[in-house]
Structure formats: C-alpha cells, structure tokens
Q: What sequence folds into this?
C-alpha cells in the first residue's frame, strides 16, 4: 500500500470542504447576510474589537486586509463592510466560487483567490496592513513554520496579524463523551501524522452526512503557534486564552450570551486562544 503524503491529506480535506459549501450557505444564512447591508458576523465584531487597539485610528477602515482560510466569505465581507479593502484566500474552489457569488449579491467590493496559505504571497504579490484568520483554521494546516513565513511575507512593515482559534487542549479532549468528563484522547503536541476522521459529520448541520467523509487534522500546541510566528520574524504583542467558544466544541458545552461555555465550571477548560503579532517597521 502506498503511504499517504501531505498532498494526499490536503486533497482529501479539500474535497470535504468543497462538499461543505452547499450546506454552509444554508446554515450560515448566507443569502440573508448578503442582502442586509449592515450585517457583520459576530466573529468579526468580536475580532475587530480585539484588534482595534493595534490599528492606527483604531479601525480597519481604509486598510488592506488579507483573510486566510476564508471559506465562503461571510467574515471577509464583514471586514469589507467595516471599511477594509479585503481579499479572501481559500484552497477550496467551491468556497471561493460561493464567496464571489455572495460578494456580487451583496454588492460588496471584495476579491477572492483560490490558493493555499503557503502560496498566497507569490499568488497575490502584494502586502497588507492586516492579515487575519479566525476559528477552526489551524488544525487543517500540516505545518505552521510555512504558515508563519507566509504571514510575515504578506504583511507590510508595521502590519498586524491576528488569529483566534479553538484551544489546543480543547482539540485534544475526547469529543464523543456525553458524561461531562474531560478526558484527553488526541495528542496535544504536534505529531508526524495527522488524526484521521471518518465520521463525515458537518459541524454546522446535524442533518448533513458528507460523501467525502474522511478528513485529516493536525495537532498544534500553543508553543508551536507562538514560536513559529517568532521564528518568522514577527513580534507577539498580545496573547489571550478564553473560556467561551462560538460553536459547541464539546457535547457538554452550553450556550450563553457570551458563547458556548463549560456548564458547571467555566474555569475548568480553556476553549479558545488568540494571538496578535506585528511585523517590525
């Protein structure tokens, strides 16, 4: 049997994400979002508040922003509605096609480019005031050293990078347990091979079973995330760990006005983290 390569893993993931698009357009309420000129996603509202202290004038208005792993583009369009000159980047052709359709329907000026994160600097051949990526992104990347290098290359001198994602400890928890116990099942630290998932589940809809059911996810510890950015030449300006999550990351989490939380003890488990970094002038 021929051994799987990183390209094979990426191709399997791309096929799955291509198939996700149809159900996500419905689950995200994409048409209604496009038709409401003032609509900005909750994720972008929160992230804009987090990043604004690092920006000249405290706003992205008038700034060039690159959104990595943008999927169907609702968050990218949200940044455009806040005044940014945006480009969304994703490796899924179907995601990019849907994002362009939404941008046209919304009459929002935004570009969408199909490419991997690693290929973004050479594909775009331009630099940005802000590079952004958020929630559910890093587990799909086999390497963070090339990810961080691409971010550095995309940023203008003085430019700001921001990432918010599920916490690596949460990713290592046994997600199939329904008894409320927090049990580690997956690796916390990075490993040579990704974790295979054959469930075919769609996180946005319980009614969807994907035909391209097999996907592969990579573990990335906090130290790997932070050190990769430092090694690429960026300076870390802020780091947070959070007790809420924008989606139900575990069956035991319950919804609250702030997001999904641990029901008995919100301090028991970190659910998300964020890092802000800057390229030197």
A:
């Amino acid at each position: 049997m021929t051994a799987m390569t990183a390209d094979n893993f990426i191709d399997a993931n791309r096929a799955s994400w291509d198939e996700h698009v149809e159900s996500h357009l419905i689950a995200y309420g994409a048409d209604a979002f496009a038709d409401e000129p003032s609509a900005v996603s909750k994720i972008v509202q929160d992230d804009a508040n987090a990043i604004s202290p690092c920006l000249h004038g405290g706003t992205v208005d008038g700034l060039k922003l690159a959104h990595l792993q943008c999927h169907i583009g609702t968050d990218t369009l949200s940044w455009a509605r806040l005044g940014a000159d945006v480009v969304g980047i994703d490796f899924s052709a179907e995601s990019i096609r849907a994002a362009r359709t939404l941008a046209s329907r919304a009459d929002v000026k935004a570009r969408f480019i199909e490419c991997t994160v690693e290929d973004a600097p050479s594909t775009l051949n331009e630099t940005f005031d802000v590079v952004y990526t958020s929630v559910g992104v890093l587990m799909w990347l086999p390497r963070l050293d090339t990810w961080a290098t691409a971010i550095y290359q995309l940023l203008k001198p003085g430019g700001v990078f921001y990432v918010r994602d599920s916490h690596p400890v949460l990713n290592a928890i046994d997600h199939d347990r329904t008894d409320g116990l927090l049990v580690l099942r997956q690796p916390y630290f990075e490993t040579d091979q990704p974790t295979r998932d054959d469930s075919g589940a769609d996180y946005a809809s319980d009614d969807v079973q994907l035909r391209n059911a097999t996907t592969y996810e990579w573990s990335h510890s906090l130290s790997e995330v932070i050190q990769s950015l430092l090694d690429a030449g960026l300076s870390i300006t802020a780091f947070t760990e959070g007790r809420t999550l924008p989606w139900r990351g575990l069956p035991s989490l319950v919804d609250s006005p702030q997001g999904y939380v641990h029901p008995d003890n919100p301090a028991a488990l970190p659910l998300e983290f964020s890092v802000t970094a800057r390229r030197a002038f």
